[in-house]
Amino acid sequence: MNPTPARKSLWIPWLFVGFFGVIFVVNGIMVYHAISTFSGVDRRDAYKRGQAYNTILAEARAMEALGWQARVGHEPVNATVGRLIVAVSDATDEPIRDADVRALVKRPTNARMDFETWLVPIGGGAYAAELDWPAQGIWDVLVTVEQGATRYQVEERIFVQ
Predict the structure, then answer these.
(1) Which residues contact 75 (CB under 8 A, 6 or more apart)?
(2) Contact (Cβ atoms closer than 8 angstroms) between residue 70 and residue 87
(3) How do 69-76 and 150-160 pair as beta strands?
(4) pLDDT for res 30
(5) Which among 5, 74, 75, 138 has the fewest CB atoms less than 10 Å away?
(6) Which residues contact 11 (CB under 8 A, 6 or more apart)?
(7) What distance lies between CA 27 and its chain's CA centroid?
């Protein structure tokens, strides 16, 4: 009686190598995109803000006590240009005039598109700046209003079409 020859399935180890090779390639692609797209840093001064946390909380309470309000909006002018409008009022809904207003405009997905701009008064407590937007979509606008020694900040998310 002849023994049955052992079946040599040499492709089975290559199946494992191929399977794990695909896993490594896919993980490598995901790591590349995770590192190259979003840094995870929301603010450039995050460390310093962490060090001054109590001071920042006191400033936030002082701004809240002011009762000021800022409404941030966007008005399209043409395909790429739009007007950023900020209307600022006090606790009694009176417009805030003669203030210095600037905006830090941030793209949540790409910090390289961030920019800062000054807004000019257009009357009635409203301030505006015409901007050539680098891209359409979601933008975070950090508005800083300074009138004398009084400082007020608000952050709004807008959609640019």
Answers:
(1) 82, 83, 85
(2) yes
(3) unpaired
(4) 95
(5) 5
(6) none
(7) 26
Instruction: Report the amino acid identity of residue 15.
Output: L
How far, in Å, are 68, 71, 148 from residue 153 at the CA level? 9, 11, 14
Alpha-carbon span 4 to 17, nearest angstrom? 29
So what CATH class is 46-160? Answer: mainly beta
Neighbours of 66 (CB within 10 A): 14
Nearest C-alpha neighbor of 117 from the set 75, 87, 160, 86: 86
**According to the model, what pLDDT value does residue 36 have?**
83
- Tell me the average pLDDT of the chain: 91
Name the pTM for this structure: 0.72
How many percent of the chain have pLDDT more than 90?
A: 71
Residue 76 corresponds to which tokens in the numbers above?
């399209």
Token pair belonging to 60: 């936030």
Is the dihedral angle over the CA atoms 77, 96, 117, 139 positive or is it negative?
Answer: negative
Contact (CB, 8 A) for 99 and 88: yes
* Phi then psi dihedrals of residue 2, to 5 deg: -95, 130
